[in-house]
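Data deposition worksheet. Section B asks for the primary sequence of the deposited chain exactly as it was used as input, without tags or linkers unless they were present during the calculation. Section C holds the resulting structure in token form. Section D is free text for depositor observations; keep each observation to a single sentence. Incomplete worksheets are returned to the depositor.
Section A, Depositor: J.P.
Section B:
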Amino acid sequence: MSQVICTVDLVLLTLKAGELQVALLKRDKEPFKDVPALPGGFIHAGEDADARAAALRVLLEKTHIATPYLEQLATFSGPARDPRGWSVSIAYYALVSIDIIEQGCSEQIRLASVDRLMQLPFDHKLIVDTAVARLRSKSQYSSLPCYLAGESFTLPQLQRVYEALMGEELNKVSFRRKMNEMGMLEELDGQFGAAGAHRPAQLYRLKPEYRDNLTLLERGL
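Section C:
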């Protein structure tokens, strides 16, 4: 009986020019050598404490990114998803700002729009679609979009992130009220960002206690 292939795959998502994009890397070995795919790798039984540790290790090795947010997505398995044999992949998705992608990650990363995604090897297209659906759903009632806004941001900037993910315009007053309800943001004293033709806007960031945990709303935006 052949051994089951056990891997982790990472859906690394970012927002660029108002468009949600996923990071792809060309595979360096068969199957599908030189074809863009999700960053992924085998679980190392003697090294990884659990699947999450394996995902963090693989993400750092393949992209040079230590993500501020990582969430387990789903398990994908079966005999048809990998030409090498019966396999199981524990998939995670990570969110980072475009600044991290452009400044500190591997030069091999290629960004692709999740809405115009080519066919990917294995079942990576299904994994991406599942991650995007999860993100867009949770964006309606959680602090998840903040991880795409960068280390600091103005409220108008953060509102545009939410709108890009939800695909609709949000009322400015209602949005600010919801952010206040969540209590997850703190002002950066004396720091302001550009706000178009208006006066400079106050800069905010996630409070330290919320950087590894989601804040949820009782009602959606």
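Section D:
Residues 60 and 66 are 6 Å apart (CA to CA).
Residues 124-138 form the longest helix (15 residues).
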